[in-house]
Amino acid sequence: MKVVIDTNVFISGVFFSGPPYKILEAWRDGKVQLVVSREILQEYQRVLGTLGQEFPGVDASGILELLTVKSELTAAPALPEAVCVDPDDDKFLACALASKVKHIISGDKHLLKVSGYRGVEVVKPRKFIDNYIGEV
Fold first, then answer.
1. CATH number at residue 31
2. What's the distance, CA 136 to chain centroid?
3. C-alpha 92 chain-centroid distance
4. What pLDDT shows up at residue 136?
5. Rounded CA separation 28/69 (Å)
């Protein structure tokens, strides 16, 4: 199953335990396929770099390397009009639509409000684990 993961879920999975971490484990183990656009990848890198300075014991280079090897990069043109209240969140919808992904994993209230947009379901990490991959 292919998924798009918003930045907060991705970063939480890198730095903390819990459902986001379990989703990244499932991705690492090949149970889900992570799809990213250039814009999403740049945001992941930017936020990882910032948090890496705050948490010097965490080496984010491994996860960035894994991203380049184990994620699917897709070209995602911008949406013709803003969909989310926070237009910066539209890049996740654009990526999902461009790659025909049916699930975005997010806890972001703006993305959750637009769940169902053009067939893309936005689900919280715990719900995704419970409904689609089980305990990993």
1. 3.40.50.1010
2. 18
3. 8
4. 43
5. 10
Environment class of residue 64 by beta-carbon count within 10 Å: exposed (0-12), middle (13-18) or buried (19+)?
A: middle
Tens of pLDDT, residue by residue over 82-97, are: 999 999 999 999 999 9
Structural domain span for residue 117: 2-133
Indicate the number of domains in the chain.
1
Closest to 3 in 3D by CA, of 132, 108, 134, 130:
132
Q: What does R_g of the chain's alpha carbons equal in angstroms?
A: 14
CA dihedral 120, 97, 84, 38 (to 10 degrees): 130
Burial class (CB in 10 A: 0-12, 13-18, 19+), 51: middle
Whether 64 and 45 have beta carbons less than 8 Å apart is answered as: yes
Residue 121 has pLDDT above 90, yes or no: yes
Q: Which residues pair with 34 in a beta bridge?
A: 3, 71
pTM over the 0.85 mark: yes
72: β partners: 35
